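note to self — DONT lose this again. spent like an hour looking for the file last time. sequence + predicted structure for the chain T wanted, 272 res
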Amino acid sequence: MFIFRYLPMPGIVIAFKDFRLGQGVFGSEWAGLKWFKILFTTDDFLTALRNTLIISFMKIVINFPAPIILALMINEISMRRYKRVVQTVVYLPHFISWVIIGGILFTLLSPTAGIVSLFGGTTSPLMQPGSFRWVLVLSDLWKSAGWGTVVYLAAITGISPDLYEAAIIDGASRLQQVIHITLPSITGTIAVMLILRTGNILSAGFEQVYMLYNPLVYSVSDIIDTYVYRVGIQTGRFSLATAAGLFQSLTGMALLLFSNFMIRRMGEDGLW
């Protein structure tokens, strides 16, 4: 954590310099806010920013509630052996690399050998701007929903059984127990996970997008992470890429602080 997260922090000054490899980080000339001005007037970055916000918003709306619902469903399974099997099955996709998932999706959605051909399709959804974002969201849902239930199931196991016993005596159904006992008891956990998710709203998933996107869908799939990689690593414009990365980090921190403040105003504990 120290080597990869904290030690490189002095390199942030590259965003305020005309960085040259020969002169080094601290030997290059200062440029002030030059690269930030260029950044926010570049169409490619503005497109990447818009795509990042759209994809992240779609993932929050669709994928964030999924682990909660799945955890509630798994918790209702009474057969212990069957419950363990279900948990194992939904956990497994988390451990599969996006490289492998990308290969599976390219084959599965192939218009010649995949399921697309069964419906008479002639183009893969991965090649169509209108459907590419939905492939991103749904594949991320399949990969992450099961693993996301770990935290919520742990929170559910901490609920006192006395509450359920009292509800049963009062004649509450299973659905009423979930609505009036389980959900209110894990609200704090949901709030913390939402704060963390909000702080990463400008990180739409580099590995996933990089494995799946292509020139045909750049207009709807290029995000800040891929923009930084392409501009910084592939074209060598390190100062511009650092400026974009710094903007991403500062915005994420601001969103994290704001969401934590709002959650605390609503009566929950938040992160601190």
